[in-house]
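Support reply, case 0932

Customer input (verbatim):
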Amino acid sequence: MKILGIACSPRKGQSTYKALNACLDSAKTVDKSIDTELIELAGLDIHPCVTCGKCKDGLNCSIKDDFPSLISTLADKDVAGMIIGTPVYFGSMTAQCKAFLDRCVMFRRNDWIFRNRVAGVLAVGGVRNGGQELTIQGVQAACMCQDMICVSDGRDTAHFGATLWSGGPDGVENDSIGLETAQNLGKRVAQLAWQLSK
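Our regenerated output:
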């Protein structure tokens, strides 16, 4: 069983990546057989969907960019959960996140490949209350259109998902409150995915 993390930041190896690593590390504690993989969109050329319809006839896309290199990983039948992480830009997800989610329409059009996968969402804001929950809800809306199972960050925090603050001293690494939500989210996604796989 695999849990995928998707880092939708335009900056490689930064706050969203670090928060997702904490999230995935926590997911692995649920069972030793759980594998995780983190995909960073930073540095990849992923264009917006142009609604050409080519993907209605299989996992193919007319756009010549880097998205097709992700298709086999995203379609892998071993993937039972996905955790999507995005920075907050003007109260919403990044352009990279939106383009990624829109291009994933091919998995809906081809026998609902993401259906019943557990979905968790993580958002990193420059301030403590910088639109993280609103951003999470936007990503969850796309996941629900894929018929995924959206979860909160679980007990004891149990909110919309993981909410982190990168603007404090030393960034997300010192955001103990935010890191707790990230760890709880990773664990919650893995626990439910594990239960559903039995």
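We compared this against your earlier run and they match. Two observations from our side: The first helix runs from residue 15 to 28. Residues 2-197 form a domain with the Rossmann fold fold (CATH 3.40.50.360). Please reopen the case if you see a mismatch on your end.
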